[in-house]
Write a structure and sequence with these properties.
mainly alpha
Amino acid sequence: MAPSSSEVQRIIKRHHAFTDKIQDATREVYKAMARLYQEHPEFRKQLDPFHPKLAEFMSQGMMIFVDKELK
């Protein structure tokens, strides 16, 4: 599946809602988190065991969500 697919975007929407409960997941905050998923070694350490490209995939999906849903 592509990060832009409706199935993935549905999951990202749930991820955003969960994140928003913990902190105010504004457009800027969620974009910064998406960048951290790719760039920060601790995020990669958590996600890479599931799939070596999961952090990148999540980040792409989150950026698409921000552009479509958080205007």
